[in-house]
Records
---
Amino acid sequence: MAVALDTPTQEIFNTPSRPRTAWLMMLGFLVYTLLILVGHFVGFPLGYAYLHTVCPSGCSLTPENVHALEQSGLSIAFYANLYMVIQVLYILVSVGIALLIVFKKPGQWVPLGLSCFLVGFSAFEGIDYPALAIAYPVLNVPAQLLIGLGMGVLGMYALLTFPNGKFGSRWVLGYYLVNAVEGFLAVFITTPVFVLINTVFGLTSFPTILGILIYRYRRLLNARERAAIKWMIVSFSVFIPTLVLFYILLAVTPADSLIVPPGQYQRLLWLWHQYCGLPDGGHVCQCLRYRCVCQAHAGLYLADRHPGRVVWRDGLWFAVCLRDL
């Protein structure tokens, strides 16, 4: 005799379970996120103390920086507190968006790669991990490898194969492999020549990725995939000249001068200049724009059936990132 199941019970039995691979991918992401956050927790007090250090070179601030702060009516404590507040905010935003993407799109490599990129970015920027490496040099290489796993391996894969997860061309795959190997070697090789090569790779990554995205749009993707990738192309096209213009502005505006009349603009510009002047500051500034690009397009994974929502979220995150800059 057959027994009829009630509706809730039937729905439970009929609901398909997630594949084991999806659960393993999500578990790996959570472990990666936990490791990154542990580094932040340990490095937070070390970074805050480092921001108060003053010396001619090798510290957070130089005597000229302190003098400029005093002329602007700001204290070292204010600078350190503001820096840490901004850092905590972008960590929360980056990790929060990454979690949304992973739980919205479980078991897919491109969303997973973008999420790991954002989480790794939260460690690459700021002062927590540089201060951690200064206090505990033995952790420098493991920390760089951990960050490189999210940004260089999984994150770059997500960017170069967006949105279908397929390279589609041997030369795109070749660029990905060369970039991954170069990033791995840069952790261990610190000679001036290789540092220059690493810098060139970083500076040329923006136009290279933009070119790959345009190539994929024109040659490899279908109509639906083109609708998703075109917003990335637009944002990269906007951010590249904006990045160049911003660096020109920083180059012609001395950080310790009062050429600009006192006011909020001058203070924010000076603080940003100091933010870029920390250890590996050039990479910090470059990757902060890179993070904005990724966050601006995180909404692409959250709006499958509502194209208007894609535009709205893209514009919202773009505005938020510009406000932070």
Note: DSSP finds 13 helices and no strands in the chain.
---
Amino acid sequence: MRTLIDLLNNDLGYARIFADGDGYGYELTTYRPRTIADLFERMSGYPSAEVAVSFAQQQLESIAQPPVVQAKRRKSKKSAKSPKQKLG
């Protein structure tokens, strides 16, 4: 059985800190659905509540930081038109 120990929150989500038979853990919930599932949404087995709170806080702060994605640059194809000559 799990017992709620603490609740951390910010504008983007919250983390529940709980105690269970395996030690302490956290469960992360976002207010907006995420496009990619996160392996660290729920973790348990920490030796103390302080350690679980620390890791939950890091995960909660990482929600606000969007992943860095570098866009691929495309080479523009120049048309094979010949330059126009001025008459005159």
Note: The two ends are 92 Å apart (CA to CA).
---
Amino acid sequence: MDLIILLVIVALVIFFFKDFTSFVYGIGIIELFFKIVHLMSEHIGSSDFSLWVNKNFPVSIEAILAKYSSGLLYDVFCWLLIICYLILLFNLIKYVVKRK
């Protein structure tokens, strides 16, 4: 289920935003969404809500990669994800420096 969610979101990002920078921002948005949902489920205090979130939402994109791949393929995907995160970080820093 979580792989389907990720693939649909990535497909929508690629469909609506055709350049690579927008794709990197989309990956960052997806990762933040997963983190925020799990953080909310931990702090709301409802065990039913926490169970629902843990069942329907992955913790991170890396968790999806770990679940559906292993070995060298997993390592390659993780490094590609790290490269996307570094590009996102570079773009955010460049944006903040440009504003000053």
Note: The chain has a mean pLDDT of 84.
